[in-house]
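Quick start: what a row looks like.
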Amino acid sequence: ILDREKLGLGIMAFVEVKVPQIAEASIVELFKEAVRGEPSIIGCYLTAGQFDFLLPVVAQDMSAYSALAQNVLLRLPGVQDMRSSFVLEAIKDTTTLPIS
């Protein structure tokens, strides 16, 4: 398991993305394909609620995140709206699963 901060990735954000309710399946598939191809997006989750997808994203600094948001995230196929929340401190961050 790599330490993102030691690798120069000081910013971690959780980005909520909304696609139109009437988005064609082909647009959603293009979105998923684009997400899979972007290394700065380290996860993608289809969610229930106000937004459709949750993307954990990493960047070197706020300037790099700004460029990523403008040049990549907002240009993903079908993106209608986007909201970013930035991690200030990781209280718990584990890969351990609760198995018996």
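That is the whole record. Residues 31 and 78 are 7 Å apart (CA to CA). The chain has a mean pLDDT of 94.
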